[in-house]
Amino acid sequence: DAGVTQSPTHLIKTRGQHVTLRCSPISGHKSVSWYQQVLGQGPQFIFQYYEKEERGRGNFPDRFSARQFPNYSSELNVNALLLGDSALYLCARGQGPNNEQFFGPGTRLTVL
Amino acid sequence: QQQVKQSPQSLIVQKGGISIINCAYENTAFDYFPWYQQFPGKGPALLIAIRPDVSEKKEGRFTISFNKSAKQFSLHIMDSQPGDSATYFCAASERGSGNTGKLIFGQGTTLQVKP
Fold first, then answer.
1. Which residue of A74, B24, B54, B86 is most buried, as measured by CB atoms within 10 A?
2. pLDDT at B101
3. Do A42 and B32 touch (CB under 8 A)?
4. Which of A46, A98, A38 has its CA nearest to residue B107?
5. Considering only CB atoms, which residues of chain A are within 8 Å of chain B?
6. How confident is the model at residue A28 (pLDDT cuts 50, 70, 90)?
7. B40 contacts chain A (CB < 8 A)
8. Confidence of residue A95 (pLDDT cuts 50, 70, 90)
9. Do B43 and A106 lie within an 8 Å CB cutoff?
10. Does the beta carbon of B49 lie under 8 angstroms from any beta carbon of chain A?
């Protein structure tokens, strides 16, 4: 158990719609990162948040946004969905001096 | 310069054999190199990691070898078992100031261990 829960497990949307994905690290863990993993590829970094502040952003369009709440849970929002947004969206918590990333099970998003 | 190149794309090994996966990087600022194991439908699980101040790290059947001058690192799985069949990803990050933990992943290697 990586100490990260994500919801929902699976999601099907149509092009142009909006989606919100949720992530909760175990209690007390303040660092949350989001990654996109397209089928057959390695995960790609989208965002990192620490104590509710954005600390890093990957090379993704402005349709992608995120926020972190006072309890350190996080939401990833994607607007105007495209077919190419179909992927496994992973949330990770950071831990230790190397900020080791521990990944949750992911949310499988399918855009039709 | 931010890329991490991983090879081979796929690997078939007999039970009890040694599985070897290689990665290469360009960015000399990278200073943390983890390996992840991912089973279908699951998130990646941290397997083992190394920092460039050591040339080798071993945990059980898993060993990372690190060659700083060549900017290469590899994962060796000794006595490979059918349960090791999964996709393996190498990654790299630049801990530095800010320490976002942003990982740059390789393309992945699908390992099949035959009984």
1. A74
2. 72
3. no
4. A38
5. 2, 4, 31, 33, 35, 40-45, 48, 55-56, 58, 88, 90, 92, 94, 98-106
6. confident
7. no
8. confident
9. yes
10. yes
Any alpha helices (H) in A1-112, and if so which ranges? Answer: none
CA contacts within 13 A on the Cβ side of A25:
25
H or E stretch covering B89: strand B86-92
The residue ranges of chain B whose pLDDT is under 50 are 97
Query: What count of other Cβ atoms lies within 10 Å of the Cβ of residue A9?
Result: 10
Give the C-alpha separation, A18 to A20, whole Å.
7
pLDDT of residue A98: 80
pLDDT of residue B20: 98
What is residue B76's DSSP assignment?
E
Region A9-22: mean pLDDT is 98
Helix H or strand E segment including B65 = strand B62-67
> Residue range A21-38: average pLDDT?
93
pLDDT one-digit tens code per residue, B54-78: 999 999 999 999 999 999 999 999 9
Does B5 touch chain A if contact means CB atoms closer than 8 Å? no
Q: How many Å lie between the alpha carbon of A53 and the closest alpha carbon of chain B? A: 11
Q: Are A35 and A64 in contact (CB under 8 A)?
A: no
Q: How far, in Å, CA of A7 to CA of A76, rounded?
A: 11
